[in-house]
Input
Amino acid sequence: MELALRIALTHLLARKRQTLVSLSGIVLGTAFFLAVSSLMRGSEIDFIHRLIDNSPNITISDEYRGASLQPAEMRWPGGAVHVRGIKPETEVRGIRGYQQKLQFIESLGGLRVAPVLTGSVVLTFAGRIEGVTLTGIIPSTMHDVSTIDEKMVAGSLDALAANPNGIVVGQGLIDKFKLAMGRNLTVATPDGQVRAMKIVGIFRTGIAAYDETQTYALLKRVQTLLDRPNRVNRFVIKLDDPYRARDVATLIERRIGYKSVSWIEASEDIMSLLLVRNIIMYSVVTAILVVAAFGIYNTISTIVMEKTRDIAILKSMGFHTRDIRNIFVSEGVIVGACGSLGGILLGLGLMSVLDQVTIRPPGISGEAVHLPLYRGISQFAIAFSFAMVSAVAAAFLPARKGGRVHPVAILRGAA
Amino acid sequence: MTAVVVAEHLRRTLPGTVPVTLVDDVSLEVDRGEFVAIMGPSGSGKSSLLYLLGLLDVPTSGRVWLEGEDTSGYDEDRLADVRLGRLGFVFQFHFLLAEFSALDNVLLPMTRLGRLEPDAARRRAQGLLDSLGLAEHARKRPDQMSGGQRQRVAIARALANDPLVILADEPSGNLDTHSAATVRGILRELATREGKTVIAVTHDPSFASAADRRIGLVDGKLDPTWTPPTLALRPPAAAP
Output
């Protein structure tokens, strides 16, 4: 094997230019693969982070996926009767006995949970009317499950605790109503309660729909406003490991019965979009490497053709077909290994160039954004193995041909 | 049994719409330390016979015995192993690996066989080159040497694994008279002094004259009556 490697090396060094061309094919292929995949993976991770951060990992609402089995269905199984969405008429809507359920969820560990009560209200200010969603929160628990805190441009959620009549609204609503901190709004509930509330905080998430229609107030206040004392209709959960969301959601739903939706379930369409994006990226990059592999194939084919006499003499000397094949496969391995190592270095270089790039997204914030780059060991491993596999595969075909050279045919021709 | 190479009714036919018979029912025995020259006109099948005797080619029928060992039925790898350890080839063209020095070329078969430690192999290769008068050329690459020197390197390479039989195909065909004489002398010495069996294909009568025995081959058949045609020299031009 050592001998094969030596002969392979001399072959490659003897035709430096062609070797360099096929080497640079692999180098460029690997480098682009790394740069593109780190950008794609980076943006994917960035995207998922935003997805995870901006929405709860798990939302438990006061709904059931399926109604419990009803007597009518037990009496006539498979009959024409189908019961859906059972709710006792008189009961106040919301999660029943939420304190106990909260305790259970907290006992699972590895998560933070906040109980909230959301409802629709109408805001009135200076003759303008707007229907919004009012969310009753406990500020101290909300910090743990939402990034809304970081999005505050004025005031804070904690101000709600100090002022039970306070309300936190989005920048969009402020712009629409020409409001400002400290102004009073009139909040009207569907069943006719009206209360004046004071703006104690303003947030801006950058999502227009959210900034215009979401408002926050103290849980107790919202409970009385909506006439649902001691009720919540949603648990918002943040996990230490967001990727456990599906399992934890299933576990909770099985135990407490209420519908628990993980972020993975809620954004299935986006996840499949990301998958499609990955498939596109990998096929484009594979195409680059396939083209590079043709370069290697070409080089080694030429060497095999040029070296038929050498092959003939080596075989007459007693080299096996396998030994000859090993020589040319080694050439592929050498080009592949050097090429992918060079490609990894160039790829790292490209990444550091991409790191310098900042983008100013059009919009009010004007905040410079860096390209999200992911430098995972798996990317390097995939790039390396892709390059190696294509190089060796490209070398194998001419190597097999070289191995099959019959010495007598060559000797006869040469004599 | 002193016969090292025994050929038994060797026949080699190239398949095709019109099959061509290269070697036709050849039987012969070559003893240890014997120097045999195979002679014949061009296209008589001399080289084909040599390839069969050297186990490079497989006969269509008949068999080749090497040291009393029947080699028929050996597969390609086994034949290669026999060639590696017991046979040495010298061709009309030196067929040295262009990128390797003379020493490295001689080392190739030894490294492949792996019988000697690298250091010992190196010493042996140098010794072989020394004995062929190439001591100071060991580091040179083939393109830095003359035709005669290259052919001597090729002989050293054929001797690398201390073979039993040296098979030479027109070893002096490409050389000037002086170099041809040197190569002839070396092969003669190898047979006489070291007891190597030498089988050489040649059409050079002066080369064949060094051999112990000359075998004539015409149209693939042994022809004991065949003698090389003496070149008709042009009569000297009459003095003006």
Remarks:
- Chain A is about 55% helix and 15% strand.
- The two ends of chain A are 31 Å apart (CA to CA).
